[in-house]
Design a protein that fits this description.
By secondary structure, the protein is an alpha/beta fold. The chain is about 50% helix and about 15% strand. It has three domains: about 1-70 and about 95-115, no CATH class; about 75-90 and about 125-475 and about 810-815, Glycogen Phosphorylase B (Rossmann fold), CATH 3.40.50; about 545-800, Rossmann fold (3-Layer(aba) Sandwich), CATH 3.40.50. Phosphorylase is an important allosteric enzyme in carbohydrate metabolism. Enzymes from different sources differ in their regulatory mechanisms and in their natural substrates. However, all known phosphorylases share catalytic and structural properties.
């Protein structure tokens, strides 16, 4: 069928007025859900509404998909193991301009939109900032008009559902798919064989090169599921394609009939495991193998898919860099470098040098961390067993890399060992971050500080060899979701004050800065914040049974639980304030609610201990009448996008207190500041740029800088001496060690305390005093409501630069070489 013939049978766009939507919802309720409106339950109305909105997204999706075929436009393929997309109904309605007519249609049917929206499950496809960034980028690529696919894994359970029992984190399966997913479409025609293990054999000659053929021992099928991602105003709808694993042989009947049911279903179980859980613990050999299987599975399927599409349209792989941009979101998809080389050299007979030029011209890599454990490495033995041909290719890439280094840098043995893709000093491991670096034409950091530190630390020697490769692309967030959708009261106020053009031109947010000292605007701004706090207070009451005062300062730290993010510093200072309130009840204390949320990796014992300590401290403080309600501590379980959308608009204070030099960027800091929270933080990650944008008087910065952290470590950090010299800190640590917060087990936190006393690798003790002083500065600002509101307004007004649209336009211009709308 020709394109003209396809256009001739296009369905007419569906109507979007309230009456038409009402009729469509009733129709879907009857003929898709199979319910009469008289007996329909809330989840039935949700399903019908999703289907009606989805139909209208599909109208735009079909046209967006056809566009690149007509024009030959370059496509972007964004590879990420996480896409934390959250609930999609409100997002799609907002971007399509359907919120008001859908609400009106449902209201006429006696259905409350807000009530049914709350029933939609969060897609459990991510853990934190990495996955949420990928989701924001997908929405922004559609909004600025870039043809793009997101590629990831369709996890059945995702990370885990977090419950708190007796203060402990309990990991339970996240059953987000138990009732199906109305947003996705299975694409049975997009099914690919994914191989593992086996042997590599020579197979004739390709020019002057011996052709190699990989014969996998095991194969599984990758099946595609597509979700439409709607851009702002529905101008473009892109595709999120997630892969699900299936066994080639679903069942071995001979084994089943012999009664060996385990053997009969072994292939099914082995395949199903690949896409069952996000980030399986890799502390065991089996866990490491599963994670490597996951990463290769989705990379291989994605490359097969995009190459099929490319060859169908262009007929050759030699123009791949001109028509395809592959972005590796962190180190997890870095095996794509070896896989693309295998496909080009082994399957398309492209000579090595040309294949390498194609690979490097097509792939680019975003680094998100300086933590060595997050720059993945795999044992050579595991790679050779699971991906034998890829290991051969990695050895060849490495040999050529080191040969180049000898010529360009006159490298000695130590420098060659540092550059090598094979770490010979820790059990022979493949350095996947280094593989991604050498196989990419651009490598970007995600904040100005992080990018400079990449050059100085983890990629110092590769930067010497390729000095033009690293550049910065500071992260951004989907302002439409995190302001227009999450905080409708605030966006309504801004539209009224500075005009509706701000909805399409977020840079106009800066105009609100002129109103920062306006008393009437401050009053309305504060009233919206208080209303948001009342909503969060109800969530806190219903979730954890703690009553909090919406007139108290809501002091928020919401992020993955990790030692470098220093939730421990926060709770130590909380204990210090608790002690001071009891000792000096006569002082004018600023009432606070300390709100924590986040998950710890299932195998991360220290992080889980920090969660338990927070909950133990909360139990003591919240039940002590001597505090008189001046201080409350809350840990909200199962942090996800939907919970964030309630917490972020209600936050007064944003805790961004990581050890300087360790947070690559952060995006929670951007969301909270956008919604009028004042940041207390170190000069780390994007805090540096936030401080520059909002102004030093509208942010509270404390603690060691990245250079000072490095100097302190070189000089020999002595936490015991710091603790001994600080009565407040010593009292806090003695209380924890003595079991004040764990009377049922006085030794519960012995290891945590011993670590603080002896090692303190994240310099909690070094920054404790500065953090306490900064918090008292926050108290002083809070006591001056007009000053606080002015600072909060300036935060909102100056955050437009942190839009994901800006970030994506920079990627498009500097890395992908694609035009934007």
């Amino acid at each position: 069928m020709t394109m003209n013939e396809m256009n001739a049978i296009d369905p007419q766009p569906r109507r979007v007025d309230a009456e038409s939507l009402k009729a469509a919802i009733v129709d879907k309720l009857a003929y898709a859900v199979g319910k009469d409106s008289i007996v329909a339950e809330p989840h039935d109305w949700l399903a019908a509404t999703i289907l009606v909105v989805r139909d209208r997204a599909i109208d735009r999706w079909m046209e967006s998909t056809r566009g690149p075929y007509r024009t030959g436009a370059k496509r972007v393929y964004y590879l990420s193991v996480e896409f934390l997309i959250g609930r999609l109904l409100r997002d799609a309605m907002s971007n399509l301009g359907l919120v008001e007519p859908i609400a009106e249609a449902l209201n006429s049917l006696g259905v409350d939109l807000d009530a049914i929206e709350a029933l939609e499950p969060d897609a459990a496809l991510g853990n934190g900032g990495l996955g949420r960034l990928a989701a924001c980028f997908m929405e922004s690529m559609a909004s600025v008009g870039i043809p793009a696919y997101g590629y990831g894994i369709r996890y059945v359970h995702g990370l885990f559902h977090q419950e708190i029992k007796d203060g402990n984190q309990i990991e339970l399966p996240e059953d987000w798919l138990s009732d199906g997913n109305l947003w996705e479409f299975e694409r049975r025609e997009a099914a690919y064989d994914i191989g593992f293990g086996g042997t590599v054999e020579s197979d004739g000659m390709a020019g002057d090169t011996v052709r190699q053929r990989w014969q996998p021992q095991e194969k599984v099928l990758a099946i595609a599921y597509d979700t439409p991602i709607v851009g702002w105003r529905g101008a473009r709808v892109n595709t999120l394609r997630l892969w699900s694993a299936r066994a080639v042989n679903q069942i071995h009947l001979d084994d089943f009939n012999r009664g060996d049911h385990v053997a009969a279903l072994a292939d099914l179980t082995r395949a199903d495991t690949i896409t069952r859980v996000l980030y399986p613990a890799d502390s065991t050999v089996a866990g490491q193998e599963l994670r490597l299987r996951q990463e290769y599975f989705f990379v291989s399927a994605s490359l097969q898919d995009l190459l099929r599409r490319h060859l169908k349209q262009f007929g050759t792989v030699e123009n791949l860099p001109d028509k395809v941009a592959i972005q590796l979101n962190d180190t997890h998809p870095s095996v794509a470098v070896a896989e693309l080389m295998r496909v080009l050299v082994d399957l398309h007979d492209i000579p090595w040098e040309k294949a390498w030029a194609i690979t490097r011209g097509t792939i680019s890599y975003t680094n998100h961390t300086l933590l060595p454990e997050a720059l993945e490495s795999w044992p050579v033995g595991l790679m050779e067993r699971l991906l034998p041909r890829h290991m051969q290719i990695i050895y060849e890439i490495n040999a050529r890399l080191l040969q180049s280094a000898r010529k360009s840098l006159d490298a000695d043995a130590d420098l060659l060992a540092s550059l090598s893709l094979i770490d010979e000093h820790h059990g022979r491991r493949v350095r996947m971050g280094q593989l991604a670096f050498v196989g990419s034409h651009k490598v970007n950091g995600v904040s100005a500080l992080h990018t400079e530190l990449m050059k100085e630390t983890v990629f110092r020697d590769l930067h010497r060899l390729y000095p033009e490769r690293i550049e910065n692309k500071t992260n951004g967030i989907a302002l439409r979701r995190w302001l227009m959708q999450a905080n409708p009261g605030l966006i309504d106020l801004l539209v009224e004050a500075i005009g509706p053009a701000v909805l399409d031109d977020v840079d106009r947010l800066v105009e609100a800065g002129a109103l920062a000292e306006d008393a009437a605007f401050q009053e309305r701004f504060a009233a919206i914040k208080r209303a948001n706090k009342m909503q969060l207070a109800e969530v806190i009451r219903s979730t954890v049974g703690v009553s909090v005062d919406p007139d108290a300062m809501f002091d928020v730290q919401i992020k993955r639980i990790h030692e470098y993010k220093r939730q421990l510093l926060n709770i130590l200072e909380t204990i210090a304030v608790y002690n001071q309130i009891r000792m000096h009840p006569e002082r004018d204390w600023a009432p606070r609610v300390k709100i924590f949320a986040g998950k710890a990796a299932a195998s991360y014992w220290t992080a889980k201990q920090i969660i338990r300590l927070i909950n133990d401290v909360a139990r003591v403080i919240n039940n002590d009448p001597a505090v008189r309600g001046l201080l409350k501590v809350v840990f909200l379980p199962n942090y996800n996008v939907s919970l964030a959308e309630t917490i972020v608009p209600a936050a007064d204070l944003s805790e961004q207190i990581s050890t300087a030099g360790m947070e690559a960027s952060g995006t929670g800091n951007m969301k909270l500041a956008l919604n009028g929270a004042i940041t207390i933080g170190t000069l780390d990650g994007a805090n540096v740029e936030i401080s520059e944008r909002v102004g030093p008087d509208n942010i509270v910065i404390f603690g060691l800088t990245a250079d000072e952290v490095a100097a302190q470590r070189r000089a020999g950090h002595n936490p015991r001496a710091i603790i001994g010299a600080d009565d407040r800190l010593r009292t806090v640590i003695e209380a924890i060690a003595d079991g004040v917060f764990s009377p049922d087990d006085r030794n519960r936190y012995r290891d945590l305390v011993d670590n603080l006393m002896t090692t303190d690798g994240f310099l909690v003790t070094a920054d404790f005093d500065a953090y306490c002083r900064a918090q008292r500065e926050v108290d002083a600002i809070w006591r001056e409501p007009a000053s606080w509101q002015a600072k909060a307004i300036r935060n909102t007004a100056n955050m437009a630069w942190f839009s994901a649209d800006r970030t994506i336009r920079q990627y498009a211009r500097d890395i992908w070489d694609v035009p934007v709308g």
